[in-house]
Design a protein that fits this description.
About 35% of the residues lie in helices and about 20% in strands. The protein is an alpha/beta fold and about 300 residues long. The strands form 2 sheets. A 6-stranded mixed beta sheet has the order 5-6-7-3-8-9, with helices on both faces. Strands 2-1-4 form a 3-stranded antiparallel beta sheet, with helices on one face. Helix 6 links the parallel strand 6 and strand 7. Helix 3 crosses helix 4. The radius of gyration is 23 Å and the shape is globular.
Length: about 300
């Protein structure tokens, strides 16, 4: 069975300052002895605007992580070009305004949360007083107050993601590049991180995130790009891409039975097709948070 792909669109806002731009960005990895080269990314044209949360989606091997590494200047393109905050990737001055959370956080296992953030704060030459205040606020924000003195080696995967995110925020970056930011978190932690991303957007930050968790992307992203085998297949605003335009949905609260029957008669009279009158469904996340949030919940360190 073939897979139907909707037409590609830009989803470009009417106006906006570009934070990240790629033109024909391509990365080819040479095979053994120069044979069987692997095309990780092919001709990527992309714009991410300041102040938006942008989702980069795709299956494993689609080129998402390669794109992030190219934007960070960790690897170099085979062809094409990219700019990040107006400069070429890898520019030292620009990197001071970027926060990065890799898919796996490689932190010093013998340090605790305070020491980890202090270490990275020193790398950015943040003054001592400001650094101390920022560390305290970030640990509170990511929910690690009760584990702040515990060595990182004793952290679960979810806790490691939390401290990794705090590390990515230590320099108060203008641009955040996040690879699977909610991986390993329970539903409560996931909701907290999504709320944090939305708060960063309200503060004018730009977020480019990769994720396999499509519900998370749908909740926080303004626009998305879908990659497959290194090629851009879809680009646009989430609200536009997910709208089913040939179906009209009408909702009422506490509609009287006689009014409902009258409505059915009107629809029948106008020969409406595919009529489905039923109660709307919540999401499993909403149900879970409603149940566990019914009583005060202590901060989790999953």
């Amino acid at each position: 069975m073939g897979v139907s792909v909707a037409p590609r669109g830009t989803g470009k806002p009417a106006s906006g300052e570009v934070a990240v731009q790629t033109k024909g960005l391509t990365k080819v990895y040479a095979g053994l002895f120069g044979r069987n080269p692997v095309v990780a990314l092919r001709g990527l044209d992309l714009e991410v605007f300041r102040g938006e949360v942008f989702g980069l989606l795709g299956p494993n091997g689609s080129g998402k992580t390669t794109t992030l590494k190219l934007l960070l200047g960790l690897i170099f393109p085979t062809s094409g070009e990219a700019t990040v905050l107006g400069q070429r990737p890898g520019n030292v001055l620009v990197n001071q305004h970027i926060g990065f959370l890799p898919e796996e956080s490689y932190l010093y296992q013998f340090l605790n949360a305070d020491e980890t953030l202090d270490f990275y704060g020193r790398l950015f030459r943040i003054p001592r007083g400001e650094r101390k205040a920022r560390i305290h606020e970030l640990i509170r924000t990511v929910g690690l107050e009760d584990a702040r003195r515990r060595p990182i080696r004793g952290y679960s995967k979810g806790m490691s993601r939390r401290i990794g995110l705090a590390q990515a925020l230590i320099n108060d970056p203008d641009l955040l590049l996040l690879d699977e930011p909610t991986s390993g978190l329970d539903p409560i932690g996931t909701r907290e991180i999504k709320d944090l991303l939305l708060d960063l957007k309200r503060r004018g930050k730009t977020v480019l995130m990769c994720s396999h968790l499509l519900a998370d992307v749908e909740d926080v992203c303004d626009r998305i790009a879908i990659l497959k085998t290194g090629e851009l297949k879809m680009l646009g605003a989430v609200s536009e891409l997910l709208t089913v335009k040939d179906i009209t949905q009408v909702r009422f609260r506490r509609l009287a039975p006689d009014a409902l029957e009258h409505l059915k008669a009107i629809l029948t009279e106008h020969k409406a097709q595919g009529v489905d009158i039923s109660h709307p469904r919540s999401t499993l996340e909403e149900l879970f948070l409603r149940i566990v949030g019914a009583a005060p919940v202590e901060r989790r360190t999953e």
